[in-house]
């Protein structure tokens, strides 16, 4: 983070986090409170390590961090804003159009693992035999989050997380103002605008996922899977940047689920804030951080986050579960499959 952006955040949160001096002791300055919190998020140091660095007791630090995270959530809440008009969705679609027309976001979910919460029973116990809450996020082509839903218990099935999310409710009630279906180039069949998911999600009218299994090289299904993978790699990079830059995710949390949800949302808001800042962007994600592809969409330089990812990270993938999709969802995927197969045939012509 640049000094300018730190000062901006300090000016915004100071009225909320500053404390008054008393006759017994001077209050910890707002600048130090913000620095302690950002250090905790960026390094993942425990409270005892922060105590030696800032000369503040671990007990006070345990109170400072949630207070400052809550203030940052209030100040930066506009950094994540799901589009509300057709024009805003079309702006997002423009970023995906070259790789996957009619795509308006890449969706993914992760388990945020934590130590067993007290008196929770099996409420947060997931299929990986760990305790977790679930983060469901939607990402645009600029590696920014445009939606995040945090806090579902780990025991809920991965498909159920999406079905219970605010995003799914808005899709079902047509509250997102997604543009009307349009034909793909060279076709006269209307297809809806879609989110790009992986095998953890069910195939629906508005969520496309790859065909399961291995397919013959050059086959229509394999070409479709490759096209979808190239387009949705943005969400993989976005989560990779989030986990490696905010080292608080390097190991399972030893906090209650409510605080883990608060910390996770704070990191997501800060991610968008730094990605949109002209002064912090080169520091937060310097060249080489994100995967680099050539003009043929072939990976030439893997992002540096791939080497920095911890094997015991607190952020883990959702389970891929085979599901039988509805016939209309299959027809939509087949229409995309035909488009990408025809496009590949044209590109291979002499």
Automatic annotation (TrEMBL):
Signal peptide: none annotated. Belongs to the HARBI1 family. Keywords: Hydrolase, Metal-binding, Nuclease, Nucleus. It comes from Parnassius mnemosyne. This is DDE Tnp4 domain-containing protein. It is found in: Nucleus. It comes from the Eukaryota. The keyword Nuclease applies. Its cofactor is a divalent metal cation. One of its GO terms (cellular component) is nucleus. One of its GO terms (molecular function) is nuclease activity. InterPro entries: HARBI1-like, HARBI1_dom. Residues 107-272 form the DDE Tnp4 domain. Its main location: nucleus.
């Amino acid at each position: 983070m640049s000094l300018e952006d730190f000062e901006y955040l300090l000016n915004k949160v100071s009225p909320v986090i500053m404390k008054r001096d008393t006759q017994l002791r001077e209050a910890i300055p707002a600048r130090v409170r913000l620095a302690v919190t950002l250090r905790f998020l960026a390094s993942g140091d425990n409270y005892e390590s922060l105590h030696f660095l800032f000369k503040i007791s671990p007990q006070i630090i345990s109170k400072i961090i949630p207070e400052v995270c809550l203030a940052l959530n209030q100040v930066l809440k506009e950094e994540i804003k799901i589009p509300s008009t057709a024009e805003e969705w079309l702006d997002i679609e423009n970023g995906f159009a070259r790789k996957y027309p009619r795509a308006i976001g890449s969706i993914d979910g992760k388990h945020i693992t934590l130590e067993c919460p007290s008196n929770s029973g099996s409420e947060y116990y997931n299929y990986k035999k760990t305790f977790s809450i679930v983060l469901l996020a939607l990402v645009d082509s600029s590696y920014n989050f445009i939606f995040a839903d945090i806090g579902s218990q780990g025991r809920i099935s991965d498909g159920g997380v999406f079905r219970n999310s605010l995003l799914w409710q808005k899709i079902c009630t047509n509250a997102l103002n997604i543009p009307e279906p349009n034909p793909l180039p060279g076709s006269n069949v209307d297809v809806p605008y879609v989110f790009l998911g992986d095998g953890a999600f069910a195939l629906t009218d508005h969520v496309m996922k790859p065909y399961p299994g291995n397919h013959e090289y050059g086959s229509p299904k394999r070409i479709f899977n490759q096209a979808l993978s190239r387009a949705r790699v943005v969400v993989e990079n976005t989560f990779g940047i989030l986990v490696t830059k905010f080292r608080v995710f390097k190991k399972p949390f030893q906090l209650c689920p409510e605080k883990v949800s608060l910390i996770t949302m704070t990191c997501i808001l800060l991610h968008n804030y730094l990605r949109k800042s002209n002064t912090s962007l080169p520091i937060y994600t310097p060249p080489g951080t994100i995967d680099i592809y050539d003009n043929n969409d072939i990976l030439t330089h893997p992002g540096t986050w791939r080497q920095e990812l911890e094997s015991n990270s607190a952020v883990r993938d959702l389970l891929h579960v085979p599901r039988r999709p509805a016939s209309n969802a299959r027809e939509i995927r087949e229409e995309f499959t035909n488009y990408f197969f025809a496009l590949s045939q044209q590109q291979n012509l002499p």
